[in-house]
Amino acid sequence: MFRGPDGAGADHNEGMHNDVTATGHAARIATVDALLPAPLPFRVHGDDTLLTAEAGETTAAGLATCTEVGPDSPQSIWRARVEHRLEVQLAGPDPAAGLDALLTRWDEHLHSLAQVGDAECAAVLSRPSRDTAGTTELLRHGFAPVGVIAVRPAARMAAPGPATTPGVCIRHATPDDLGTAMRLMLELQRYDAQFGKVTVRPGIEELLEKELLRQLERPEPQLWIAELYGRPLGMVLLQMPDETGWIGHRVAASRIGYLSSLAVSEAARSAGVGSALAAHAHQVFDEAGADVVLLHTAVANPRSTPFWYAQGYRPLWTGWQRRPAAR
């Protein structure tokens, strides 16, 4: 049920507020980005909490949730162990003021749940990248843009380049490539940890090895190795449209490809290996009939962000984080 500060009456009032806000939010978002899915009113389950706020004629609604993962979970690499999340909907003439009021309510809510200064507890919310209203308010509340879900529509062309890269050969990975894939993934994780999206934890080698073995043992693994003049120096890992239901709610498309990881050894950077792997991945997705391809990239990464935009991607959702959650 809806949870509000004033008992059952508040539940009903906040539910009505939520529905009205969702209608206005949907109309506003429809003008922002054609690839955004149509939003629906929030529905509260279990320990979720519905937060509402007003700023003049602007209304705001937020669905506050919390998830926790153990230190041995593969997901613990990509996030704080405890994540408080807020899904946001804003309707009215001043969405920035509405977001500011909603963030203030969320701060009050978080102080009842999170320990001040706990670095393994993060506050996270995602905003449509082209919906820039409220950016100043997010910064003032201590949030930083950390990651992006980037999208590449199937009809979008990458930057011009050669059809093939001299010296580069791309092939399916085999179980014999486990050591190469581990080396490349560890190099990637340690580099990405600088930008706030990745946490290098004790036991990361075991977590990565388990996931890579799972991929390599599949009948047709979507893990590919790039060799530069015979040396394995790059890899790309893909999720095909029948595996991407977990992220399908983020884009208005039927068949979605997801590019999980692309890693190139430091020794082969700027040699065209990454571009060759990306082109190969897009060919695989095109053959599978993907309407769009999604991937995650770190906002502050000076290599991956310009690289992916040069391959035809653009930001769809921007992930904002405050870690620790409670200040």
TrEMBL record:
This is Ribosomal protein S18 acetylase RimI-like enzyme. It holds the Pfam family Acetyltransf_1. GO terms for molecular function: acyltransferase activity, transferring groups other than amino-acyl groups. Residues 168-327 form the N-acetyltransferase domain. GO terms for cellular component: ribosome. Keywords: Acyltransferase, Ribonucleoprotein, Ribosomal protein, Transferase. The keyword ATP-binding does not apply.
